[in-house]
Amino acid sequence: MPTASPPSSWDELRRCLEQNWDGAEALRLVAQRKAPKWGNDLAAVDDFAVDVASYTADRINHTPNQRGGHFQMGCWSIDHSVNFGKVTKATPDGRRNGEPLTKNLSATISRDTSGITSLINSVGKLDHAAFPDGSVLDLMLHPSVVRGPDGAKVIADLIKTYFRRGGLFVHFNVFDAETLKEARRRPEKYANLQVRVCGWNARFIELSPEMQECFIAEAESKCG
């Protein structure tokens, strides 16, 4: 694991981001792999997320629109996490220029290392009533988790738990990474393979290569 001292000032961190972490790879890996992350039921991180979401919702929901009403906040990226990422510069979590952003309410891919219950607990701390345009949590499960006669109960229990935590909308993808990789290599054999995007399904082979890679990376992170 890389070792590096944290930046000595906000100005130093700003320079790292302006330079796309060039010359600061050790520090970038510490930020990416060691700094606490959203989705692990950690109070310090989750409290920060709650404050940011609350502040943003208050600003958006009280801003008049031209139709006589107010704008409404939604906590979802829909299918724009890749496109928005392409125009977003480097961020303090170790992400480089142009890399995908986090999808919807989910944790950054492979950063929710404490299990699915911790992810649900983190998301449940948000006030979903403050998002009148809606919110959605993506859950990626390895097929082994829902295999056998108790598989349906696992899904049902996760849904009930999320709703008890105050969540609004949750959807699932159940894949192993090798299936998705094979679909990318041999698309003619997987023409009907579908993934859940954000309230709708899409054929995996019709997604952009960048979006396909996001699904593969997420599936790989669940294989353990």
Short synopsis of the structure:
With 224 residues, this protein is mainly α.
Mind explaining what this structure looks like?
The chain is mainly alpha-helical. It has two domains: 1-35, no CATH class; 38-221, no CATH class. It is built from eight helices and six strands; from the N terminus they run H-H-H-E-H-H-E-E-H-E-H-E-E-H. The chain has helices at residues 10-18, 25-33, 43-61, 81-86, 116-124, 151-164, 177-185, 209-221, and strands at 74-75, 134-135, 137-141, 170-174, 194-196, 201-203. Strand 5 and strand 6 (201-203) form a beta hairpin. Helix 5 runs parallel beside helix 6 (151-164) and helix 7 runs antiparallel to helix 8.
What structural keywords apply?
single chain; 224 residues; mainly alpha; 2 domains; 6 strands; globular
Poorly predicted spans: none
How many helices?
8
Number of E-state strands = 6
Order of helices and strands: HHHEHHEEHEHEEH
Class per helix and strand makeup: mainly alpha
